[in-house]
Write a structure and sequence with these properties.
Helix 1 packs across helix 12 and helix 2 runs antiparallel to helix 10. This protein folds into 2 domains: 172 residues, no CATH class; 186 residues, no CATH class. It is 50% helix and 19% strand. The longest helix is centred in the last third of the chain and has 44 residues. The strands form 2 sheets. Strands 1, 2, 3, 4, 5, 6, 7, 10, 11 and 12 form a 10-stranded mixed beta sheet that branches. Strands 8-9 form a two-stranded antiparallel sheet. The chain has 409 residues and is of the alpha+beta class. It is built from 14 helices and 12 strands.
Length: 409
């Protein structure tokens, strides 16, 4: 406790140096957070479906735009449930996006099964993500939607078809708006195919209501089915089928030909997508690695220099403490406690600054992801600073005697 109080007193007596050191660490922490987030941002849309991308299987699109003249029963037998399409292949699991037909509204609606809802949550501006166990129909909508829907609103959506209803024009359904997706947020299943080399990013689209001239509505397929078991939701856009490990390539190719007969197109294998995806992720990482390496070097140099300057300026104080009964190791601990206090203050200020950025227009440019890797990197920077703060005084103090220090200028 005495050493800690001594450290606090030293900080008060050297306030200018403390401010300089504090600013250095704050800047280093905030830049680290932004850079690590930039790396993780590329990975966060790959990781939720990593087990699919790394498996044997197929990746394809289905475009079903049903009309009153279509044979509804025939379409349902193939595209109403994933299990129905899965039964026509040798696959073991399926991930797909579904779309209820909508009428008289300028909206693009996607219904997700429970597994997809648990795996991926799009970036939200406000509110929360869908709850597949909700008792009422919940929806998440796009920002800047033309209906002005916000979190907490009750929206009326014109959906169809429900086979229990003789009116083929659809039915009106009330839904509670529980969240709003950020503008240009990555939406799973609402695909973007404008890629020369297909990757996992083909499973997503950066949705903008202004660009698409539509309002996006996301909902739970299971909740919709509980509302009326006869609702028809067709597969629309992305489908991924996973096969058991060791499935022969010939069987997968047979299914590929069969699926093509069911209007499936852009048929690729999941290994093809995965190879391209990892190449893309590595390329993004390699672009950021030099910046991260330079940042780490700057932090190390800054930590060494500030610790050396701080220890050098306080050598006479440490010599006096030595005469009064403290050992060199205890003097080094005083310096360590000072660094610990400065580091803790820097961490608090950095986190506060990052939270402020996250709630301003700067969040569109500087995205910060609060996750375990980012937090570990921040703690790693602080640990590096604390280690050098402990080592430098020990080196200087051991190479000097109290008498020599006190007799120097």
């Amino acid at each position: 406790m005495i050493l800690f109080k001594t450290a606090l007193r030293e900080l008060k007596n050297n306030i200018k140096m403390v401010v300089i050191m504090l600013l250095q660490i704050v800047v280093a922490l905030m830049i680290t957070a932004v850079m690590v987030s930039a790396v993780m941002l590329k990975y966060q849309t790959y990781e939720p479906f990593k087990d699919y991308f790394e498996s044997e299987g197929l990746f394809f699109y289905i475009d079903i735009v049903a009309s009153e003249n279509d044979n509804l029963e025939d379409l349902m037998s193939r595209f109403n449930y994933g299990e129905q399409l899965l039964a026509k292949t040798h696959g073991s699991e399926i991930i797909a996006s579904y779309q209820p037909e909508t009428f008289d509204m300028n909206i693009l609606t996607f219904a997700y099964d429970d597994d997809t809802i648990r795996r991926y949550k799009p970036p939200l501006k406000e509110g929360r993500w869908l709850n597949p166990n909700a008792e009422e129909l919940e929806i998440v909508v796009s920002e800047n939607n033309e209906y002005g829907w916000k979190t907490g609103d009750t929206a009326e959506i014109h959906l169809g078809w429900a086979l229990s209803n003789e009116d083929k024009k659809g039915v009106w359904v009330k839904a509670k708006v529980v969240g709003v997706v950020k503008e240009n947020g990555e939406i799973f299943g609402c695909t973007n195919r404008n890629f020369l080399t297909p990757t996992y990013k083909n499973a997503y689209m950066q949705f903008s209501s202004e660009v698409e001239n539509e309002t996006l509505v996301l909902l739970s397929q299971s909740v919709l089915k509980r509302l009326d078991p006869h609702y028809v939701t067709f597969m629309r856009d992305l489908v991924m089928i996973k096969y058991p490990e060791g499935t022969p390539e010939e069987i997968i190719n047979e299914d590929r030909l069969q699926l093509a007969k069911y209007d499936a197109h852009f048929l690729l294998t999941l290994p093809e997508i995965d190879i391209n995806s990892k190449a893309y992720l590595y390329e993004q990482l390699y672009q950021l690695l030099p910046i991260i390496a330079i940042l780490l070097i700057l932090v190390m140099v800054s930590s060494i220099s500030t610790s050396a300057i701080s220890a050098r300026r306080r050598l006479k104080d440490y010599a006096k403490y030595y005469v009064l009964g403290l050992r060199w190791r205890q003097c080094a601990l005083v310096n360590f406690f000072q660094a610990l206090i400065i580091g803790a203050a820097a961490l608090v200020i950095s986190c506060a600054g990052l939270l402020v950025i996250g709630n301003t227009a700067l969040s569109e440019t500087f995205v910060v992801l609060w996750n375990v890797p980012m937090i570990l990197c921040l703690l790693g920077i602080l640990l590096m600073y604390l280690v050098f703060s402990m080592i430098m005084p020990m080196i200087m103090l051991r190479s000097n005697t109290p008498k020599a220090i006190l007799q120097s200028e």
